[in-house]
Amino acid sequence: MIFAEEDFCPISIGDDLGDPNISVTKSETNNSQGVGEVTLETKRIKVTKKTKFINELLPQIKEVKSEFGDGSIESLIPNSLVLVQGALEGDWGNSTNAKKHKNHFGLMGKSGKYMRFPSTKEGIKCYLMTLASHPAYKKLRALLGKKGSLELVGYLGRYSEDTLYANKLRRIIRENDLTRLDG
């Protein structure tokens, strides 16, 4: 006997099963008599520190950018650029600054000490405002909306003293396909 999904299955696609590492997938098939069958399958997904970082930061990045409003300089900064700098500067959310001080971007104050934020959203906001207003990023701002993050990282030269900084960012973007998160 074949049951309809609504008659039988206690879970549905997208249900929160209390574990973010479990996904529910659905497949539909027709048997030789033309009767449809629905199969729901749960499977454990391997969640890496990178996946966790992206899943935690991306919604906050989008929310902060929306607070600045469409068309603002901050809203034009690609998500992948924000994520890649947070990944490199904050070790994918595992650095002390990221964990303890909500500073994923290695932002330093005028005192030369790392800044501390009450929330990750406040750290993201400060980072976006820095790129949107600091004179060192004037060329970057001129290219927002015209170039993607792989090109824009070349205009972050003053962000780090590391001469290979832009190359490291490009490698991380490519290896993790971060540009798919833009838009």
Structure description:
The chain is built from nine helices and two strands. By secondary structure, the chain is mainly α. It has two domains: 40 residues, no CATH class; 133 residues, Lysozyme (Orthogonal Bundle). Helix 2 crosses helix 4 and helix 2 crosses helix 6. The chain is elongated, with a radius of gyration of 21 Å.
Summarize the SSE layout with pairings.
Layout: H1 5-8, E1 22-30, E2 36-44, H2 49-68, H3 73-76, H4 79-89, H5 96-101, H6 120-133, H7 138-143, H8 149-152, H9 165-175
Antiparallel strand pairs: 1-2
- Domain unit count: 2
Structural class: mainly alpha
Q: What portion of the residues fall into strands of 2 or more residues?
A: 5-15%
Sheet with most strands: strand arrangement: 1-2
**Helical residues, percent:** 40-55%
Distance between the termini: 46 Å
Give the overall pLDDT as a whole number. 85
What is the CATH level 1 assignment of the largest domain?
A: Mainly Alpha
